Structure formats: structure tokens, C-alpha cells
Amino acid sequence: MLKKLKPYKIQLLFIISILVMYCTFAYGLQRYDFVKLITLYAALFFLSFKLIHLLKTDFKILVAVGVLARCIFFIAEPNLSQDFYRFLWDGRLLTQGLSPYLLTPDQWVAQGTIPISQSSELLEGMGSLSRAHYSNYPPVNQFFFWLAGLFSGNSILGGIVVLRLSIIAADLGIVWIGSKFLKVMGLPAQQIFWYFLNPFIVIELTGNLHFEGVMLFFMLAALYLLYLKKWFWAAVLWGLSVSVKLVPLMLLPLLFQFLIKPAKPSVQTQDFLRYVKQNLPASLWKSTRFYGLGIL
After folding, report:
1. Residue 69 DSSP SS3
2. Which of 91, 134, 193, 215 is spaced 20 to 30 A from 62 at the CA atom?
3. Rounded to an integer, what distance in angstroms lies between the CA atom of residue 50 and that of residue 44?
4. Which of 214, 68, 198 is closest to 145 using CA atoms?
5. DSSP assignment string, 186-239
6. Is residue 70 within 8 Å of residue 206, measured between CB atoms?
7. d(CA 161, CA 148)
8. How far apart are CA 92 and CA 101, in angstroms?
9. Radius of gyration over every alpha carbon of the chain, rounded to an integer in angstroms
10. Which residues, in sequence order, are CB contacts of 9 under 8 Å at separation 6+?
11. Are 43 and 176 spatial neighbours (Cβ–Cβ below 8 Å)?
């Protein structure tokens, strides 16, 4: 790979600059330093935009840059979000066989018996707002918190690493599924890098441990299978996506027209409204089975 990069001095300079800036973002930025934050953000967007244009045919190199950018954050504590403290709190409750939905952290404190390690650090880190409320993270999201609690032991940093690995794996899955999806739709597979090398995605998901990337992986896989007319597994994956973040639930109505369209359009079925009217029972069955399984 390095030999391949040698003739491309500008591209190599861009890659090094991007990685250095991500390193600064991960280990040398305080959330109150707005000028530094916005300057790094703007520079990263510009350099990433130029790099995608310059290396748009070098798929493997762009994947490598995206992976390296994410690996820079590997042992960094999120500096723009404190949500991960609540993730670890919920995960450690689950490893003890306790539901994170039953009591708020403040209620655990009031009981006087907190069954998890490092409770003081986690409570202080998550802040008063999170402490006072019940967990609002859906069950599949909680599964990843449980993994962090299971494999990190009593280490907060270990929990961060496990959560980060889950998010990076989901982003790699998005590159894989997304490139296949683009190809079957007749679009350039390189367009997936507008997601994978997007600084907002790298920083907010891998850096700050937000699980929208895992949600998007399941949702994109569902759309891909739905496009291939494999509705059953598409519905299952859509349900998993909703069980990470609730956003895809709001998008279900947008699939209605795709779900009920004729399998083999002909001259007689080009008028969509007329087709639905003439085939109402079959159309409703197509949509109902998908929605029903997904919601179930």
C-alpha cells in the first residue's frame, strides 16, 4: 500500500494531515474550546472531501484511511459526550442479571446498595440529568452495553474500547453492504465513502460512542434485502434497527409505496393508484406482513 501511495504526494500529505487532526481531536481537545473544535472540523471536512475526489478509484486505500482514523480514537475517552457513562452503568447492571429499566441511578443510590463496581465514577460522569431518569435505550442497544460490562471487568477504559469496537464493526459492515447496494442500483460503489470518511460520522460515532452507526447498519442491510425482495429477513433487520435506536420506526411509512408496488410492472399497472385500488387485498398483505414482523 505504501508503494502505491508514493507517486501520490498530495494524497499522502492529506492522509497524514487528516490522521494528525483526528489525533488532536481525540487527545488534545476540550469541549469548551469552540474555536479549536470548529477549526479542526472544517479542516477535516475539506481534506476528506478532497481526498475522496483524489482517490475515488482506490477503494482499499480509502477503507484503510477510514479504519486508521477510527483506530486513533481507540483508547480515547469521549470528549464531546458523557453518555458512555450511562452505557457502562446499564451494561454492568445487566451483567449482574438486573434490568436497567426498573430503577433510575438516583433510586439505586437511595436504596443504599449499588451492585456494580465504580458506581461513584459512573454516577459522577453521567451527570444529574441522566441519573434522575430511567434508561431510554432499546434492548438491542442494551446488548452492546452488556458486552462492554461482560468483557471490560472493572475498567471504564475497557468498556469504552468494547463499545468502540462494536461501532467500528458496524461502520465496516455499512461499507460492505453499502457498496453492494450501490452496485446493484447501478451507482458508483465509491459513494459509500461520503459516509465512511465523513468527519461527523468518525467523531460522533467512533469518537463519542453514539450508536446511530449500529442502527444504520441494520437499516441499510434491511433496505438491501428488501430491494432483493427478501422481505422476511428485511423485516427482522428493520426491527433490530429500531431496537437500537427508534428513528427507523418513523421511517416505516416511507416504505409503503415500495412494499405494495407490482412485482412486474406492465403498461396496465403504471398508474400506481389504479394498481393499488385493483389489488388492494394483496397490496395490504404485502405491507402488513413486513410492518407486523418488524414491529413484533
Report:
1. helix
2. 215
3. 10
4. 214
5. T--GGGGHHHHT-HHHIIIIIITT-THHHHHHHHHHHHHHHHTT-HHHHHHHHH
6. yes
7. 8
8. 13
9. 22
10. none
11. no
Distance CA 12, CA 6 (A): 8
Please give the biggest Cα pair distance in the chain.
Answer: 72
The pLDDT, as a whole number, for residue 7 is: 63
Average pLDDT over residues 161-180: 97
CA distance 25 to 108: 35
* CB-CB neighbours of 157 under 10 Å: 10
Cell of 167: 461501532
111-154: pLDDT as tens digits? 988 889 899 999 999 999 999 999 999 999 999 999 999 999 88
Distance in angstroms (rounded) separating the CA atoms of residues 128 and 219: 33
To which residue does cell 474555536 refer?
A: 35
Which helix (H) or strand (E) segment is 33 a member of?
Answer: none
105: CB partners within 8 A, 6+ apart: 86, 89, 122, 123, 126, 130, 131, 132
The neighbour count for residue 253, using CB atoms within 10 Å, is 10
Residue 166: closest CA among 140, 189, 190 = 140
Contact 243, 139 (CB under 8 A): yes
The C-alpha atoms of residue 37 and residue 62 are separated, in whole angstroms, by 24
Question: Given its phi and psi angles, is residue 153 left (phi above 0), alpha (psi -120 to 50 degrees) or beta?
Answer: left
Number of CB atoms found within 10 A of residue 141's CB: 20
Each residue's pLDDT tens digit, 15-30: 999 999 999 999 999 8
What is the spatial distance between Cα 146 and Cα 162, in angstroms, rounded to a whole number?
10
**Number of helices followed by number of strands (H, E) in the chain:** 17, 0
Which segment of 15-19, 135-139, 169-173, 259-263 scores lowest on mean pLDDT? 259-263
